[in-house]
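Table S4 entry, Glutathione ABC transporter substrate-binding protein GsiB.
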Amino acid sequence: MSRRTLLRSGLALGATGLAIGSIGACATPTGTPGPRTVSLALNRSLVSLDNKLNQFDAALTVQRGVRQSLITLDKNLKPQLVLADRFELVAPTQWLVHLRPGTHYSDGSPVEVADVATALKMYSEVDGSFVGGFFPEWPTVEQVDGATFLLNTNRPVPVLDYLMTNILITPARANKPEELQSGRGSGPYVVTSSDRGTGNYTLERNPKYWGTPAQIESVQVRFVPDESNRVVSLRSGEVDVIDSISPDAADQLAGLKGVSIDRADGVRLNQLFYNFRKPRNHPLADARVRKALTYAINGPALINQVMQGAATEATGVIPMTLDGAIETGRYVYDPARARSELAALGVRDLTLKFIWETGEFVADTDIMESVVQMLSAAGVRATLQQFEPGGDIMTWRQGKGGDWDVLGNGFPGPTGLGITIMQGMFAGTAAKERTRDTYQGYVFSEITDTITQASEAVDPARRSELLATAQKQVWDTSPFLWSFVPKVVLARRSRIDDIGLRPTNSYDLSAAALRA
């Protein structure tokens, strides 16, 4: 039975079939959200209320409803001031920042300069920092007065304003170098209940919010991994918004009364990324082997038949939707060539182990099983190990849980800038690798030098030139077995308005409204 048939069967069940449990105290007796409540069903579990280790874009919708940054990006990925009312480059290595008067946390305590300094320290110290990979260096805070401070760097970081959009601020005394499960923030919502194990959270409108109050009174957040469950729940009115849906689901929901579909071009790169921590005598340590294996993958078939057109095959090492991205090459499907080149390199009886987390991308299990079949045609065996959300895949990614060969993963472009994702994925150093803060052990000093020069270039033209060079260098190392850029698709009940879906697969929860 095809995925499309399965989905249609699930839809036929309607509200009488699949369910996701009770909505909670704010639900009506029928289980549907109340007139002042919105229910969100996420395809991946929300395991944290901050983003130190987060790589799940949709989680930011909830996280930023509770915690805020000095500066954020709007739906066009342009900087907008939030907790700061001034964020200005005053010297090549210095930014002047002023906290907006009246900003405070949900308990009424003010947002202070010390909170910013502590936040930067905690993000830099967390083991396996996701956000840390974007920063070529961590800025230091130099306080000028009670509300004014300088962000100093040793070298120019001309996109520091974009980078700081990823730093969510928490009271200094409550912040830690780990994922925060609770605690107060300065955002328009407060968390009234949370369960990391189930991924269920309840948010209520912050009565002490310093800015414009959120229009929606209560938000129920829950983890519903099965797409057919999420679709049926939306169709029956049990939930209001479901994210990261497949074309199958979009086709079934499009045109239904009371349901709307939002789409945006994505800025996330999904990849089957090689493990670069292999010893020198391992086949995958040879770029020629990594390249030869790519010929075994039928990318168009995966895009069109497995994902039903929900993505675009990558033509470079970062999404073409990002500023500064260039085409560096295209994948070629030729299993006979894969087999012959591997034989010429002396590679025989190769077995690869794939790991990934459930929900990492649309049709993840189907994609992995299809890849196994494709590799077998080239004489390569493969095994699969799937991790549930909230499991220990991070330990494996860092090389501490067990050995693996290929990681199914996604890496976002949260700033809309190509330099940011290049810094996060490909600017590894020996020092970072010692703390396992590189991207799967990817360390090439020449490439890191080029990316570093690009990140420090104040002149945009020079930055683009260096960035293009770095992308070509990365492509020549063959870091991916295959990669693609997913399209962002969200479905919602029409009673919720002004979502403003962003290319980052997130939206401003406080701006959303309920129709009468």
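Residues 460-476 form the longest helix (17 residues).
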